[in-house]
Amino acid sequence: MRIYNTLNARKEELVPIQEGKIGMYVCGPTVYNLIHIGNARPMIVFDTFRRYLEYKGYDVTYVSNFTDVDDKIIKRSVEEGISAQEVAEKYIEECRKDMASLNIRPATVAPQATREIPGMLEMIGTLIEKGYAYEKNGTVYYRTRKFRDYGKLSNKNLDDMQSGHRDIKVTGEDEKEDPADFVLWKPKKEGEPSWPSPWSDGRPGWHIECSVMAKRYLGDTIDIHAGGEDLIFPHHENEIAQSEAANGVPFSHYWMHNAFLNIDGSKMSKSAGNFFTVRDIIAKYDPQVLRFFMLSAHYRSPLNFSDTLMDAAKSGLERIKNAAANLDYILANPGQRPQEYLPDEDSQFAVPYIEKFETAMDDDCNTADAIAAVFELVRTINSLVKDTSSVAFVKTAREKLGLLCDVLGIILEEPKDELETEIEELIAERQAARKAKNFQRADEIRSQLDGMGIVLEDTREGVKWHRK
Ligand code: AMP
Ligand code: ZN
Question: Is 279 contained in some domain?
Fold first, then answer.
């Protein structure tokens, strides 16, 4: 499998540190608001990449953090009149709901920065000891020029950068030894969340958080580090400087970055105000459509959000789901079909499409081409499978289609068994009876279901049922 490594600006064969295992760190959101669909892009594409690694047999440790202490969170807490921690907890929970809607699997570990302060104090201490950091008035800065490889990820040169912003002075610039130095620890301001440290009561800088969480859960050297391309500089460049100076070994072998989700040609972002939340979109479309739309482009190509493209994703997804539903229907209605393969039914018919799918995914996670292979499989299934096809043949078709959709995180509805169908028909009949004010019939149905061991629950989203 080859992936594009930002560090070396080329596609490279994926060689894990430990055979059969991958440790992967993906920078997660800053939780001060509902996530927008731009934030959802790295979540969806790297979740799909993880699923494919697992499909190939790798044991994947997937770490993705929540940044739960930050200026924006503090600002929000003042606006909402609640603590910064309450803001963060609230939006972590909302983010988890959106991720579940989009069928993004929970990370193996989802650390929160505020729970990792001891590790940060330790790494900052090490950096000071090794001469890579210094303290001034309670603030700790990273001595950027001391790290010889600074700029290797983003291809930036410190001298060029400096001549660019010689005139721009920001707070604290005067006390830095060099304008390129960045903050590892900063003293608190009145009313801000803070932790004690040898330098001041304060809080960590954003970059140190990821270096520390990656080290704790994946080790000093990790296989893959990923995130949106806006993070290449300064965030990931600074992570490399911190981790490699502190640990004395390479930080990450591969760096993967997704391109932006744009709207009218410019980056969707909270600060520019040109965004849709995941909530906005899934009120209009099935969340699966949003996921499918994201995967319809290669992750390193910019993707423009539009209703036209969402509608195209919707109909593409329907084509796949209809093919699966048709196979399920044939399987559920056996009739007089032969149990064995017929001579004209080749059990290997799906192989070329699976190969095509894998070739695409092996080539830097090309989901666009992988989806094209799924469409070809669907077309073949639709033309080959007939009412008279053998059970084994239809089963193979359904299984292979399910296998590929699962890598993409697309859920094909499982066929309902007879009992489930009967229960749902009874519930629908009860709803109709209630609407017609025939409460006697409605009660009869409720007790009939009760006798079958089914409990009904009236919820805002309609009637739900579960077994006793
Ligand atoms: P943030 O909450 O801004 O730190 O972003 C969380 C993640 O979403 C990072 O990996 C960003 O690179 C990514 N991201 C933010 N906006 C976009 C966008 N418009 N398109 C793609 N990725 C984005
Ligand atoms: Zn990060």
Answer: no
